[in-house]
Here is the input.
Amino acid sequence: MTTGLVPTMGALHDGHRALLRAARAENDRVVMSLFVNPAQFAAGEDFDRYARDEERDRRIAAEEGVDEVFAPSVEQMYPAGFSTRVEVAGVADRLEGEARPGHFAGVATVVLKLLHVVAPDRAYFGQKDAQQLAVVRRMVRDLDVPVEIRSVPTQRDADGLALSSRNAYLSGDERVRAASLHRALLAGDPSLIEGDVEYFTVVDRDTFEPAEPRAGAIRVAAARFGATRLIDNVVLEQR
Here is the structure.
């Protein structure tokens, strides 16, 4: 019997449904974790206001055929005296790693714990968080974790905006302007972004080192629309 794990922080949307459906299609058993991980939020970020609606999330999980929802408490995941952090050097140091110090250590630590607890054959992550995906893949490879990391294409609204739990923070005008992020990535032109650009560059999809625009490389960007910070990426194709 094979098990697929879909790690989530709740506030589920259609992007999460795509992950759950992929796991359902490829495994006999599907486990969804539901845990807002404090270790990946820096001081001043949105941990306290991050949307939490466990009843709704469990209902969506049931609709998508999830066999088990693993929803640990903070105390379960980080008991008194917890002092271990998983640092993934290199790929975690750039871009989001620079913008959010400690973020990827928090991600890698909680993902490794989830993989140990659930012991899945496969774990599912969205392509939208491309650097997170690269960090997890490197951690799994380096630490010989016996799991296959599967990526699922970014799910988007009709205007191209990548689905994200943080989209709920956008005002009406900000939501309209936020769609410019994907248009700019497709065009390779950061001037099209109708917000405050933090970075806009092309990187290798595995190392996140700067790369020439080529098939398989990733164009990545982060920008703020009002107080809301969004990230997105597109995989470049052969011309």
The CA atoms of residues 184 and 190 lie 6 Å apart. The longest strand covers residues 196-203. The longest helix spans residues 103-118.
